[in-house]
Amino acid sequence: MSGALTGMDLETTPLQGVAVLRPKIFGDSRGFFLESWNRKVFADLGIRQDFVQDNHSRSRRGTLRGLHVQTQHTQGKLVRVVSGQVFDVVVDLRADSPSCGQWFGCTLTEEGGEMLWVPPGFAHGFYVLSETADFLYKCTDFYHPQSELTLSWDDPHVGIDWPIPPGEAPELSAKDKQGLSWADMPKFHV
For residue 27, what pLDDT band results from cuts at 50, 70 and 90? Predict the structure, then answer.
């Protein structure tokens, strides 16, 4: 599917509702231009969300952030990398979904301008592949720290194939080191 005005392409994934978006990048010797958000174009592509908060994080190589979800004020997220490269992952926590417990991952890069649409009801995280990475995300609800939970990044039931070099361990926050198992993680009826 494509947004006619900007050349935004939408690629579906095995997880219903999750999509990779590829904007048309207009470049020349001076640099480039891309449209990262346009309410009408995204609505034409089936993403009819209102965003209320933008976040920006910077992380160094080997950092793994996530897998985060809020049990109240659940957030849809439109995520992208503006500097560097990450492996971005979502896990379906929607109890009524045929893909509940399954994950999807893709590489987001500065050069490609790819974006990932993460609907409410998914745990989300990423692993930094480049020296550093600047990661932006638009959220459909406000941050609610009281209800934020972390699904363990290495839960064997989910079985995410992270691109972590052999013999290395990811750098995790104290909170992310305490992630819940799949069995202990609440599921959503979205």
Answer: confident
